[in-house]
Amino acid sequence: MNKVEELIANESGRLDVIISKALNISRSQVSKAIKANQVLVDGKIINQASFNIKPSQKILFTQVDDKKTFDKPKTDWEISYVYKDENIAIVNKPRGLVVHPAPGHQDDTLVNYLFSQEDDFSFDPENNDDIRPGIVHRIDKDTSGLLAVAMNKESQKILQEEIRTKDFHRCYLALVYGDIKHQRFRIDAPLTRPNHTDRKARVDEYKGREAITHCTLLGNNGEVSLLKCILDTGRTHQIRAHLAYIGHPIVGDLLYGHQDSRLKLQGQCLHAYSLSLIHPQSLKRITFYAPLDEYFKRLVRYFFK
Predict the structure, then answer these.
(1) Catalytic residue among 140, 142, 167, 293
(2) How far, in Å, CA of 215 to CA of 174, rounded?
(3) 152-169: per-residue pLDDT in tens?
(4) Mean predicted confidence (pLDDT) in 68-84
(5) Taking a C-beta distance cutoff of 8 angstroms, is the pair 175, 300 a contact?
(6) Phi, psi angles (nearest 5°) of residue 99
(7) What number of other Cβ atoms are within 10 A of residue 195's Cβ?
(8) Which of 30, 33, 73, 130 is the least crowded, having the fewest Cβ atoms under 10 Å away?
């Protein structure tokens, strides 16, 4: 039987914060105990982590067994935060990092990192139904750049609704093969979803889902072109599939493009450089930017030397 801890509050504050500080444990551990009805205040079961505690109140806390669905990451990624508070985190995702667990990546993802490193990541690691905790949108493993993460379920729902109503804006930079002439153009081509037998998203006018990408030419040299791509929809592999469909695959994209023996490739030359959203608590629009990583800059220097 797990040990019962008895505490007397010596200050006012949130229940989960008070217990976390007093016992030197994470708020996610406290949250699990609260959800399991194993926290009492003055003899009454409290099931809200935000419950306001007053000085001298008596707290009984029983920690639940720590059987995690999400394991600690085996790799030592350095996660760079552009912004973080108790509601959202804006991550500058490094190239090569998978966003959430999937076949072949169960313990080396951003979600694993959040569970192991961030006490404010208020999700239950034992909830098998919550397969993408905090994730409101994704960028591919070998795409770098900005990713918004919700730190709690309420923020996750709000951000997901922003995506649905198109209040959530994403802008990418892509280095593609070919001498693009149009300064601005729109790709409107329905896409099917990749699956375990077909890893590619494909344009299909009948079975595909609506997919729209707006592109602006930033520069070209006859062999490659640098594009700014804004998503009107957010289908899996949308930018990669759309650019390949019009005959301009992204440099380094071996799934939708081709190998280039001249280059030491480390994935598609695609970077999520701008992200704009309405903060779920303040309701103010905030916009973030992330510089290109060294891989993208190296390829740009190679072609535009």
Answers:
(1) 140
(2) 10
(3) 999 999 999 999 999 999
(4) 72
(5) yes
(6) -75, -50
(7) 10
(8) 130
Q: How far apart (Å, rounded) are the C-alpha atoms in residues 270 and 255?
A: 13
Mean pLDDT of 24-41: 85
Region at 237 (left for phi over 0; alpha for psi -120 to 50; beta for the rest): left
Joined tokens for residue 271: 């970077």
Q: What is the largest CA-CA distance in the chain?
A: 75
The DSSP bridge partners found for residue 60 are: 6, 40
| Amino acid (1-letter code) at residue 177 | Y
Q: Which amino acid is at 92?
A: N
Query: How much is the pTM?
Result: 0.74
pLDDT at 119: 80
What is the three-state SS of the chain? CCCEEEEECCCCEEHHHHHHHHHCCCHHHHHHHHHCCCEEECCEECCCCCCEECCCCEEEEECCCCCCCCCCCCCCCCCEEEEECCCEEEEEECCCCECCCECCECCCEHHHHHHHHCCCCCCCCCCCCCCCCCECCCCCCCCEEEEEEECCHHHHHHHHHHHHCCCCEEEEEEEEECCCCCCEEEEECCECCCCCCCCCCCECCCCCECCEEEEEEEEECCCEEEEEEEECCCCCCHHHHHHHHCCCCECCCCCCCCCCCCCCCCCCCEEEEEEEEECCCCCCEEEEECCCCHHHHHHHHHHCC
Which residue type is seen at 148? A
Query: Are the C-beta atoms of 254 and 198 separated by less than 8 Å?
Result: no
Going along the chain from its start, the domains and CATH numbers come out as 4-62 (3.10.290.10), 80-303 (3.30.2350.10)
Q: Encode pLDDT of 172-187 as tens digits.
A: 999 999 999 999 999 9
| Four-residue CA torsion sign, 22, 124, 115, 281 | negative
| Residues 53/56/57/58 CA torsion (nearest 10 deg) | 130
Query: How confident is the model at residue 281, as a pLDDT?
Result: 94
CB atoms within 10 A of CB 190: 17
